[in-house]
Amino acid sequence: MEAVSEVIGGAAHDFNNLLTVVIANLELLDGRLRDQPTLRRYIERAMEGAERGAVLTRHLLAFARRQPLRPARLDIAARIAGFADLLRSTLGPAVTLAVQSEPGLWPVVADPSQLDAALLNIALNARDAMPDGGELTIAARNLVRAEAAGDMAAGEYVAIVVTDSGVGMTETVRRAAFDPFFTTKSPGHGHGLGLSQVYGFVSQSAGHVTLASAPGAGTTVTLYLRRAPPD
């Protein structure tokens, strides 16, 4: 994963710079052709394609841990509660969403918009894994890791646990779930960058992420975010 992230990060950074030039010139050209609607339609289509490319590069930069972050001190309980209404409208009536936060949650330092994007990506994957509806739970609790475990350093964390009642994953799929461009969806229904964005954001925030799943047993994604230092 480290080697892949280095290669992808360098390529995405260079491509993002090229897209910046393309978009800037399209915007200048659009301003000069306001009286030519036919030509402006071509520019609008080109701009849409360039912006989709920019979104993809942002996901790749997130996976490679090279995206610019704007960390802030966050109250996770309030953040999740405030985001729940948007998730409910996005997931639809067939999915029941429950939010549970342990009393006295520690604050964390993380980019709020990237945390929202990570939760949304996980929730959308969960929705797709529950085609006939189901339950999605987001729970948050404090966690003290006395010793390092694998890639997870010792320390104090807030664990955000997202569990669905979906079809689950085989072990082969589970192992590849965070890989960029890996997807089990049909062509045109996913670019395979949702969970890689989650992985990159959490890693860049000095946290950790795990995924547990089995066929017929649903999926649980856990984000471990570092406790914020005292004010």
What does this entry show, briefly?
This protein is an alpha+beta fold and 231 residues long. It has 6 helices and 7 strands.
Textual characterization of the structure:
The protein is built from 6 helices and 7 strands, in the order H-H-E-H-E-E-H-E-E-H-H-E-E. By secondary structure, it is an alpha+beta fold. The strands form 2 sheets. A 5-stranded mixed sheet has the order 2-4-5-7-6. A two-stranded antiparallel sheet has the order 1-3. A hairpin with a 5-residue loop joins strand 6 and strand 7 (219-226). The two termini are 35 Å apart.
Mean pLDDT: 83
**Major beta sheet, specifics?**
5 strands, mixed
Number of helices: 6
Strand order of the largest sheet: 2-4-5-7-6
Strand content: 15-25%
Radius of gyration: 20 Å
Give the number of DSSP strands.
7
Helix content: 40-55%
Overall 3D shape: globular
Q: Any chance you could write out the topology, listing elements then pairs?
A:
Layout: H1 2-32, H2 37-63, E1 72-74, H3 76-91, E2 95-101, E3 108-110, H4 112-128, E4 134-145, E5 155-164, H5 171-176, H6 194-204, E6 208-213, E7 219-226
Parallel strand pairs: 2-4
Antiparallel strand pairs: 1-3, 4-5, 5-7, 6-7
Helix pairs in contact: 1-2, 2-6, 3-4, 4-6
What keyword list fits this structure?
single chain; 231 residues; alpha+beta; five-stranded mixed beta sheet; two-stranded antiparallel sheet; globular
